[in-house]
Write a structure and sequence with these properties.
This protein is of the alpha+beta class and about 700 residues long. The chain has 2 domains: about 350 residues, Thrombin, subunit H, CATH 2.40.10.120; about 250 residues, no CATH class. A hairpin with a 5-residue loop joins strand 3 and strand 4.
């Protein structure tokens, strides 16, 4: 047990993977995956995908912003990603006068490209297994608290040591895998000068809106184009007019040769979070508390926001990104709950747990603690569920839901940025609803004290009167008053008092959570390690944690239900057919797009049958964070941009469903068609290395 990490590391690289399921670490592709990948149609070597000695595909893949993937597609630092990944930056640059969300934007030259303050991209420069350095000195008999302290000390020490060898603009991150059983160090190079080059109007980039989100058939042109800039010596640099387009180590070729059913497909990107090792007890918590609360709270707030956004372009621009961010995971939670219940995921987990317990009882020693992993997990989840449920309500309804609380907690230098996208009267309406549902649904002992001390005593329990009083008397009603308030007045401000009451309630839950969370982590770590010890012949992969992964499979249709078969691609005909004048924010078709369709003016981007494909499906294992990831063919050429999963397999973050789970991607030919034919951006097209043939990959110049 003391040297478990060595055995563990060996298990992760010893066997070939045979399923399409899996988010695979790049350094292990040669030992784990390459044989299967080539059998499915890959024509590259493992070193072509990931190499520490020469440029490889990984050098063309970036973390885009804080939660997406992008890819370099030219020798001048041009980046393709999803429209929804660039949405926040596009919104921040938009105004009534320049509504880039609604109308799109296309720079005609480098000089016209728009700087995006706060937006960065990160390149992976090095990946190193550091399990031995992190776990090598930790005794097997150590308790979780002692173990956690030693792990943290080892991570901090190794990080500090590695930083001594880093170039300017580089950073290192040491990340846990398999529940804390394995550790990798990732060296990133961070570029902070990123500029908007082009984005289609929302009627293309967000076509279908919330209605089509997570759905197939899909007809969304979900892409946007940015460029990364560097100093004149190609190093990371803060924004400057003197910066020049970044010269990448590698950029992707683009294929317009098309694809057919069963063709090889591969995604490289940064999947955010999965919980494939979740227990049945955690599923109960998700289905009974976490998801229902999130769905209800966000649904109530979103309904108020949507009504206001439909009525005013100014409000729509201010709240577009906020609404999209909230709505995405709201609908995900709905689909997740439906999928888990429909596909019997809990029963699958219970069967796996029974096998594990039988194995642990017969094959392990009590001091190894595998025997107690699941019983301890059950006890911890039962104890932590009501605490996390109350913390979730305080987060969703108050700290995320009521914006005047955010304003009261925002430092003065950042207030202007906050108020740029703030509508105080809309927030007042939201606050009334959020405070009402919190009172109706939270355990009274965890409610913020403001209810008993102020609302009940001074306002007779009338929440709406209290909210009106807060907004009528708070300095945070306006930017001017907020900027002028001094520290003493800030402390006494009604909005600040509300904020402090919420935070105090949240903090009162923290000690119990901090006590239980280490017990949860220990049980989870032992369960995962035990599963791998129980099945040493299986190829294991770690849960997603926003580190670069490769997933691969094939272009495939699927059958979501009896007598229903979905084709593996959609066309522009479907876009035209979906137009709905009664729902203009989601289903408007641009007049020019209609003209191009009527003329069938698709140029070289049409498929062999003369139709223009919009989206397609692959059985690739993706999740949030993979948005914007390149879908690559067997030659490593770009054929699409991953942007969504499908509704029928929303349980996929917990349990992969091979017959149902699909990655939805926008066809790169539709992207190029919009850039070329719709926007007329020849200068962008001239940067791209476009390949017509499906033949072997040409040698790079």
């Amino acid at each position: 047990m003391k040297k478990l990490f060595l055995t563990f590391a060996a298990m992760t690289i010893a066997f070939s993977a045979v399923a399409d399921e899996g988010m695979w670490l790049l350094p292990y592709l040669q030992k784990m995956n390459i044989k299967d990948m080539k059998a499915k149609g890959l024509r590259l070597s493992a070193e072509d995908i990931y190499s520490i000695n020469k440029s490889s595909l990984k050098d063309a893949i970036v973390i885009f912003g804080g939660g997406c993937t992008g890819e370099i597609v030219s020798d001048k630092g041009l980046i393709f990603t999803n429209h929804h990944c660039g949405y926040g930056s596009i919104q921040a640059l938009s105004s009534i006068e320049h509504d880039y969300l609604k109308n799109g934007f296309w720079a005609n030259s480098h000089a016209e490209e728009l700087p995006c303050p706060g937006l960065s991209v990160r390149f992976v420069r090095k990946i190193e297994d550091v399990t031995a350095q992190i776990l090598g000195n930790i005794p097997s008999i150590s308790g979780e608290e002692e173990r956690s302290k030693m792990v943290s000390a080892n991570i901090n020490g190794l990080s500090e040591e590695m930083r001594k060898d880093l170039a300017e603009g580089q950073t290192v991150q040491i990340v846990s895998f398999f529940g804390g059983n394995q550790y990798f160090a990732f060296v990133y190079e961070v570029y902070n000068d990123v500029r908007l080059v082009g984005t289609p109007p929302s009627s293309i980039g967000k076509f279908g809106g919330d209605t089509d989100n997570w759905m197939w058939p899909r007809h969304t042109g979900d892409f946007s184009i940015f460029r990364v800039y560097a100093s004149k010596d190609n190093k990371p640099a803060a924004y400057s007019k003197d910066n020049v387009p970044y010269k990448p180590k590698r950029h992707l070729e683009i294929s317009i040769a098309g694809y057919k059913e069963n063709d090889f497909a591969m995604v490289m990107g940064f999947p955010g979070s999965t919980t494939r090792y979740m227990t049945s007890y955690e599923i109960d918590q998700m289905l009974e508390v976490d998801n229902p609360q999130r769905i209800f709270i966000r649904g109530e707030r979103q309904a108020i926001l949507w009504e206001a956004m439909e009525a005013s372009d100014a409000v729509r621009i201010k709240y577009a990104s906020k609404y999209a961010s909230s709505s995405n995971y709201w609908k995900n939670s709905i689909g997740m709950s439906n999928g888990i219940q429909k596909l019997g995921v809990k029963a699958q987990k219970q069967a796996e747990e029974r096998k594990f317990q039988q194995w642990a009882d017969k094959n392990t020693l009590p001091e190894e603690r595998y025997i107690d992993a699941l019983p301890n997990m059950e006890k911890v989840v039962a104890a932590i569920t009501p605490i996390e449920g109350s913390m979730q309500y305080l987060q969703e309804a108050f700290l995320r839901g009521i914006e005047i609380i955010t304003a009261a907690r925002t430092a003065t230098p950042r207030l202007e940025a906050f108020y740029k996208d703030y509508e105080v009267e809309l927030d007042r309406k939201v606050a009334k609803r959020m405070m009402t549902i919190a009172k109706e649904n939270m355990d009274p002992k965890y409610l913020p004290s403001i209810y008993a001390d102020v609302i009940d005593k001074e306002f007779g329990g009338d929440i709406e009167k209290y909210v009106d009083w807060v907004y009528d008397n708070s300095a945070f009603y306006s930017l001017e008053k907020a900027k002028a308030i001094d520290e003493e007045a800030r402390k006494a401000d009604p909005a600040m008092q509300l904020a402090q009451s919420v935070i105090a309630s949240y903090n009162s839950l923290a000690p119990a959570y901090q006590t239980l969370n280490p017990r949860f982590n220990e049980a989870h770590r032992l369960y995962v390690a035990g599963l791998m010890r129980m099945q040493p012949e299986k190829a294991w992969y770690s849960d997603a944690n926003f580190t670069i992964r490769c997933t691969y499979g094939n272009v495939l249709p699927y059958n979501p239900a009896d007598a229903i078969t979905y084709n593996y691609y959609t066309t522009l005909e479907g876009v035209i057919a979906k137009e709905d004048t009664s729902n203009p924010l989601e289903f408007t078709v641009e007049p020019k797009l209609k003209e191009l369709y009527a003329k069938k003016d698709y140029g070289r981007y049409a498929d062999k049958d003369g139709r223009l494909r919009v989206g397609f499906l692959c059985n690739l294992d993706i999740t949030g964070g993979n948005s914007g990831s390149p879908v690559l063919d067997g030659n490593g050429r770009l054929v699409g941009l991953a942007f969504d999963g499908n509704w029928e397999a929303m349980s996929g973050d917990v349990a992969f469903e091979p017959e149902l789970q699909r990655c939805i991607a926008v066809d790169i030919r539709y992207v190029l068609f919009v850039v070329d034919k719709f926007a007329g951006c020849n200068h962008i097209m001239n940067e791209l290395n476009i390949v017509q043939s499906k033949g072997p990959k040409a040698k790079r110049k």
